[in-house]
Write a structure and sequence with these properties.
This protein is of the alpha/beta class and about 400 residues long. The chain has 11 helices and 19 strands. The protein is globular.
Length: about 400
């Protein structure tokens, strides 16, 4: 059934992920509405709680405290300082840095040429990533998969050095959901979940947004629209986008990812921050402390191609793989009955692939489909000095920028 309704707003925000919520929060003094297809807001920021422990099944890194809305204090931060490691050829090698781990791995067989290649690469690109030996490429690819789902060779050169970065795994006691809750509180009743946007059409004097809600098709009107949904969805719903923007949206590709979480007694395993696992079913294993005494969280990440075999697995099968991984890491035979709780989630689009094809040549027109429609989302955040269109900081920055553009238009 189709029902037309003259519901007019100054601004409609499509998508209530972090970028959309931040854009809406920045425009909260205007007549706005936020439309979200899912039954809950937050997008890839997804915090859950069991047994008094908050944990992430989406964005795991802690947000910047300055990102919180005014008047909301950040929750207590749990800091992590453990060693990092790599598990290969049946043994786990720990170190303070990626190069440290790889030196220990290669020096076991006096493979000096391999480590010299890697040091040359990190110290200024003496070697191209494709000039490295296959074993070295795979080891760096494993560390790269801590944050990126694609193959390291698919990414622009400046992002390939992410393989060498040691990431701090500090996190909040109540999780990243604190930020989402604060933003939602700031826009109160103007968030509508369970609404499917069918089309966004800039008609010059206004924008028509056609939606499906509760079996009814409705047209909404606005002076401006912020579209903060994934690229391929934005391409589908935005009618007559300008060519640079259309080509950009159609050229963005996302990697997939899956993860499982186990809560176990901390005395069952040694303390570490994260371990890259190129030879195992998993991509990376991350350990985090909790506010509950004697309990730690283990995150098992499956990035890119490694996520494909596990995408349809159920909880019991995910737990079985996790326990097999711990055994392969040399942590002994941990039994299923020792697990306090477990959870898992599969993401069809965990992050964009930051390729030369998508981000090599940039123009602001790419994120401006038409006069009254603006794109937001981490994939739209492009800083020529630090090209990292992925993550919470990028999403927040893009939401802010879209809100500024809308303010200027209005």
């Amino acid at each position: 059934m189709e029902r037309f309704q003259d519901e007019c707003k100054e601004v409609i925000v499509v998508g209530a992920g972090l970028a959309g919520l931040y854009g809406a929060y920045a425009l909260r003094d205007r007549d706005i509405i936020v439309l979200e297809r899912e039954t809950n807001a937050g997008g890839r920021v997804l915090t859950r709680e069991k047994m008094g422990v908050s944990y992430e099944i989406g964005a795991v890194f802690a947000f910047e405290p300055t990102s919180l809305p005014t008047g909301i204090a950040p929750p207590p931060l749990i800091e992590e300082y453990g060693m990092i490691g790599v598990c290969s050829e049946g043994r786990t090698w720990f170190g303070k840095s990626v190069v440290d781990c790889l030196e220990k791995f290669y020096f076991r067989n006096n493979e000096i040429n391999e480590i010299e290649e890697i040091i040359g690469f990190v110290n200024g690109g003496a070697y191209d990533i494709f000039d490295l030996s296959p074993p070295s490429y795979e080891l760096l690819n494993a560390f790269f998969h801590l944050i990126h789902p694609g193959e390291i060779g698919e990414y622009i050169p400046q992002r390939r050095l992410d393989a060498f970065q040691v990431f701090q795994m500090g996190h909040y006691e109540t999780g990243n959901g604190t930020l989402i809750a604060g933003l939602i509180e700031g826009i109160s009743s103007r968030l509508r979940c369970g609404v499917q946007v069918l089309s966004i059409e800039d008609q010059g004097h206004n924008v028509v947004v056609t939606v499906s809600e509760g079996g009814q098709i409705t047209r909404l009107f606005a002076k401006a629209v912020i579209c903060s949904i994934p690229a391929h969805e934005a391409s589908r719903v935005i009618v007559r986008a300008e060519s640079p923007s259309r080509l950009f949206l159609d050229g963005i590709h996302y990697g997939t990812g899956s993860l499982s979480v186990l809560a176990i007694p901390k005395n069952l395993i040694p303390e570490f921050s994260y371990i890259a696992t190129p030879d195992l079913t998993t991509s990376t294993v991350v350990q985090q402390k909790t506010a509950v005494d004697g309990l730690v969280l283990l995150y098992f990440y499956y990035m890119g191609v490694k996520s494909v075999p596990v995408r349809k697995l159920q909880a019991k099968e995910m737990v079985k793989i996790a326990l097999q991984t711990l055994d392969a890491l040399g942590f002994g035979n941990i039994m299923e009955e020792q697990i306090k709780f477990a959870d898992h989630h599969h993401w069809d689009m965990i992050s964009p692939i930051i390729s030369e094809e998508s981000y090599g040549a940039w123009a602001i027109e790419k994120i401006h489909p038409s006069q009254r429609v603006f794109l937001a989302g981490d994939y739209t955040h492009v800083d020529s000095h630090h090209l990292m269109p992925y993550g919470m900081s990028a999403a927040i920055s893009s939401g802010k920028k879209a809100a500024e553009q809308v303010q200027h238009l209005l």
